[in-house]
Amino acid sequence: MPSFMGYEKSLQNQLGKKYEVTLLNCDQYDKAILEEYKKCSKLRWMVRNLFSVIKEHDQERAEAKYLMQTLKKINSAKNYYSVVFCINGSFLSDKFYQVVKERNPQARFIYYAWDDVKNLIKQSHIKFFNEKFAYNISECKKYNFSYCPMFVQNEIVGHDSKDLYDILFIGSAHSDRQKIADELYSKYGKEYRLFIYLYDPTHTNGQFCHDQPLTYEKYIEYMRKSKVLIDVPQSTQEGPTTRSFDALLTKTKVVTVNPFIKEYPIYSDNILIVDRNNIVIDDAFINKPYIETGYQALAIPEWLKKFDL
Fold first, then answer.
1. CA 200/CA 177 separation, integer angstroms
2. Domain residues of the chain, as ranges?
């Protein structure tokens, strides 16, 4: 599972009540693998784009360099694991999954796509899994997966009695988020109370950037005290982000640039869809009260029941 805001630890702790858990961060070597993968000529890049088999071969070769390191982190005994549960897992080599499956032929192999499958560095590892789930409804239809929304770390925490901020924008400083942050501040900084926090480990991208990410607890605390949360997923992402579900816990309205959210059960009058290239937030939306919808996010125990775990 990817390492993200403590979600993997919360999941491990819940599973640990029933199972002996080995947690493997599939993104541990992501930067090194991507750098290795990029070490090629322009001609090789062209060939990769033309022939998927060449692309998959080069990806596997880059990931295989870390095969032994990852295999050492799991138990090698025969049939040691009763469940192999993978979330994304695209930075582990296919050989790794093959070895795990050969060692544990009696285990359930469950796959969950936490991100859009089309955006993963590869998809070839998914073939090792018998039970397949995804958070993206359209990809569930395309790949014949079962739909399951993301989980949240908390139960409902409620909204603070008095808002400190009108507009909240929290995230990593990738893609166009810094540009959007600057535009939000320029457009609404005088009229509304804004809190903007972008995580940028290099701390080079602008006035709202910080070299340390917010903790999950701080993130929830800010949401409890904000009228509206800005949601800016990757430009190619279709499924709802974790922010949309966390906002249910704090009863915070969401302004998102993701038009596909209309297709999901989470969509309600508490969500405003705007143009990524020209974010315009309606004053009435900011100031209107949060509307109870009856839709609830899945806490980890309920989420795991979707997989019979």
1. 11
2. 7-148, 165-298
What is this structure's pTM? 0.86
CATH topology classification for 165-298: Rossmann fold (3.40.50)
Each residue of 54-92: pLDDT tens digit?
A: 777 777 677 677 777 788 888 898 999 999 999 998 888
Residue type, 42: K
Task: Supply 207's token pair.
Answer: 């006035």
Mutual orientation of helices 52-64 and 30-38 as an angle, nearest 10°? 130
Residue 200 CA to chain centroid, in angstroms?
17
CB atoms within 10 A of CB 13: 13
Work out whether strand 146-147 and strand 131-134 pair parallel, antiparallel, or are unpaired.
parallel
Query: What is the three-class DSSP state of 93?
Result: coil
Contact between 220 and 249 (Cβ < 8 Å) = yes
pLDDT tens, 252-265? 999 999 999 999 99
